[in-house]
Please model this.
Amino acid sequence: MRQVIRVAVAGASGRMGQAVIAELLGAPKQFQLYAAFDQPGSPLIGRDAAERLGMSSGVRVTESSEACKGAEVLIDFTRPEATMAHLQVCTHHGLRPVIGTTGFSDDQLEVIQAFSHHQAVVLAPNMSVGVNIFFRLAELAAGFLHQGYDMEVIEAHHRAKVDAPSGTALKVGERIAKAAGRQWPQHAVWQRHGYTGARTDDEIGFSVIRGGDIIGDHTVMFAGQGERIELTHRSSSRTTYATGALRAAAFVADQPSGLFDMPDVLGLSALKAK
Model:
């Protein structure tokens, strides 16, 4: 039987960092919160990582990612620039990262790909089990509705989210494009304003909403003549993302190398839309 997995958490004072810490403390037989760190100036620096949760973890939040030394897995929901720096720490200390950060450039994605050649990494824009089923359903629908139906992706998040469209929206757009035989991202339409003319048959439109405390809503619309089909996933709690991150941590801890996504973690990769 495998020993408890030692986990470090980046961005420990953030929304997702706190959700992950709560989940880790709720699963002491499988995971140990080994280290927690955040950027300088975070109000939790020097304090217990679970203080905001009304709990005690015995782990203090530090400014230094060197606190990861001795951990096995790093769970990272931060920002692209920070994640790039964390990969260097993972290389130095032999950690396997679980990355939920979104908004990477093509160059940054190439860095992650290169990293995966010598150490395992899970990279997923959304770690919710439900969202990954949503991806599969959207692919299946796109495979059947690739002719005669216009495809649109609509997403909504809280007012503090800094990237748009969301990583989840981009991922579902990429998957329905592939299932429908469309070119990605060439057929994506990111905005419409003014006199745009009629839409083309192949385009996949994106609409973005930012406001309030919306955790994450995603809809794929297939609009035909006389009917439309809408597939929607709504998140009411960040717990589902944190639970998925721990499943990813358990998975990646046993992988020597390779780049993995949540379908790999959940065993969905073999399920193909017909």
In short: Residues 5-123+238-266 form a domain with the Rossmann fold fold (CATH 3.40.50.720). Residues 15 and 35 are 17 Å apart (CA to CA).
